[in-house]
Amino acid sequence: MRQSSTDKRHFITVSVLVLIGTAVMFWLLDSALPMPIQASIQAQTVDQVFQWTLIAIAFLFSLVVVFMLYTVIVFRRRRGDTGEGEHFEGNTALEIIWTVVPLLLVVLFGYIGVTTLTDITKAQENEVVVQVEGFQWSWLFTYPTDSGEFTSTELVLPVDQPARMEMSSRDVNHSFWIVEMRVKQDVLPGQTTVLRFTPTIEGDYKLRCAELCGLSHWNMLASVRIVSPEEYDAWLAQQSSQAAAITTASN
Ligand SMILES: [Cu+2]
Predict the structure, then answer these.
(1) Terminus-to-terminus CA distance in the chain, angstroms?
(2) Domain spanning 128-250: which superfamily?
(3) Cα of 228 from ligand 1 centre, angstroms
């Protein structure tokens, strides 16, 4: 009776310490990894999954480290203690628990990952479609319009309207990444990959290449402007009339 009540006390103490450790670890991870603003609908979903992952990491870290430190400190050999430690024969219930719980966690996170990815990549109505070409070491955007198409070296998109990037590469593997949108997708030679996001905040952003692609990979940037629908229409009209003028002049 006496022994089991001591065990219970150890268990409660460790549980409380694990919870405190989880909170501290989560706070540390969260403040050590400050995220840029969430500038797309997808960003909110991605960050939510990220938060759940951080909580799981903080808990598992705390579980292992707190148990270990508690055991090392509380059950250490005291001065003058020369006896052998108690002999243990394993614990089947404990082994089943620590096999099944991580398995369920992996399945749960797999499920969250698959459903989230399906959700943020699904086709939307009224998408702005832009052809994206990546090459060493820059980006080119082609906009289809009623009067043909034009190219641009900056990516301009209207706010609050779903955008679909249809991407390919002229040479090696690249990757399309706008951190504020929390989306990233490989851009490959010989095939078209698709990326979707819906910008929610007007402003200037940077598109970066996220796949090491050669000497100037670090400088493979393009400016991204998210503007109001009126501004976007004006920009489209201006760009396509400019393109038309160039075509006429060269004929
Ligand atoms: Cu690159």
Answers:
(1) 98
(2) Cupredoxins -  blue copper proteins (2.60.40.420)
(3) 30
